[in-house]
Amino acid sequence: MESQQDINITEEDVVGLMDNFTKVPSFILKRMVSRNLNVVKSFENQIEAYKYQLTDMELLKIEKVMNMPVPELQIILYNAYMSTNKKQLQILADSNAVPFIEKNLNELEKVLF
Fold first, then answer.
1. Measured CA angle at 88 (ends 83, 94), to 5 deg
2. Alpha-carbon gap, residue 5 to 73, rounded angstroms
3. What pLDDT, on a 0 to 100 scale, did the predictor assign at position 88?
4. Of 1, 15, 98, 105, whose Cβ has the fewest other Cβ atoms within 10 Å?
5. What is the pLDDT of residues 14-58, one digit of tens each?
6. Is there a contact between 18 and 85 (Cβ–Cβ < 8 Å)?
7. Distance separating alpha carbons of residues 40 and 36, to the nearest angstrom
8. Closest CA to 103 of 42, 55, 61
């Protein structure tokens, strides 16, 4: 089995992991970010059920993204925003979203691993 170091993370991987956030209307996401809400807690049961459908490679990619420094992740999010023009990615790439991203990545780690 491959290790995290052997995995290359692309913008598509990050966008895929953030897919649920891009389905949320941007004004709602902006409010969730500004309030630093724990959205993982709200969807914990769905995440638990979904994790058993993930392949080992998908889990490794998720783990690697979760271990990335948030500013590095935000650069990828901003680049993805520039190529997709999804407002939600721009919101997540903003420096004001750092506490929101950190909180939700930490919570996601608890649920997945």
1. 90
2. 16
3. 94
4. 1
5. 777 777 777 889 999 999 999 999 999 988 998 888 889 989 988
6. no
7. 12
8. 42
